Here is the input.
Amino acid sequence: MKILNVNSALDPIAGGGAAERTLQVSRALVEAGMDCSIMTTTVGFSDENIPAFAGGRIIAYQCLLKRFYVPLVSYKKIQKEVKSADIVHLMGHWSVLNTLVYLAARQIKKPYVVCPAGALPIYGRSKVIKRLYNWIIGKSIIRNASAWIAITDSERCQFENYGVPRDSVIIIPNGVNPDDFSVRSPEKFITKYEFNGEPFILFLGRLNTIKGPDMLLEAFYRGRCLWPEWHLVFAGPDGGLLSSLRKSAAEQSHVHFIGPISGTEKSAAYHAAQLLVIPSRQEAMSIVVLEAGISGTPVLLTDQCGFDEVSAIGGGKIVSATVEGIQAGLTEILVDKMSLIEKGGKLKNLVQHNYTWTAVIRKYVNLYHRLA
Here is the structure.
């Protein structure tokens, strides 16, 4: 069976978690015996920053307008790729490339599925443009799909504003590949950034408003007297907040901005950290919580992340998406370092049993077979 996955960017900096998820799903499909291709743009595309897609094919079009990922490609080429696939899978939502593929799929009568991964609410910049996009075609793209995929149960209600009953939406969570985080080497990471054996909290993601690094920094600053030995590490690309965060942390010697990390260094960071914090204001199920979990690192995350199971199994703590909520959570969870180790073990057990791609990808395969 031929699957065409569509996402505007595969670059880990430009595309963020959606890019990572697209690559991981595609790899897992290939390992499950599917013939899988990825259609994307060349934004950030190079051999250095795009992981190999062994057994699959990447179709990357030049980009005319980077901000909106407008591809330089003829509609006939889009049609040709869509026609050769058995199932088309549209990732994300606010996308010119998705629009072109959608039009081709409708014209050819090709089944397609959508997985916005938390992108459906109108949030952040360009709200007027997003409303216009939905009015012109966005809602039709969602409503006319052959199947709808949510990453978490809480995301299902987001489809209702697009005319899709929540009971029609299938839940297929994110997954993780344990082999990607088998490299420990925490001592190399600790030595590189000169933590000298002192514990640190890790934030890993884009430094923008929706991810909430500003709330984490403020919470850390407010409670500084309660955890004077702890460091706070921000790892990730600038999404517009780096300058203001640096300014706010100018007098904080225990706050570090190390830029984007990937591969073995990211694995080492998870294994070296005592706690991962995900202070998002809005997010579908975060991939980094699974990456931390498979590494045995406990997490503190907000109630906007759609993964309350973390708290239920004792793998970390869920807090409100406010400075006060994050500060209170840190105050409670940092008291006992040994309990952090225990929480990390419980989260690892959960991820190993329920959220590896080997287990998750079966749901995709079963869905595709039904549609085809």
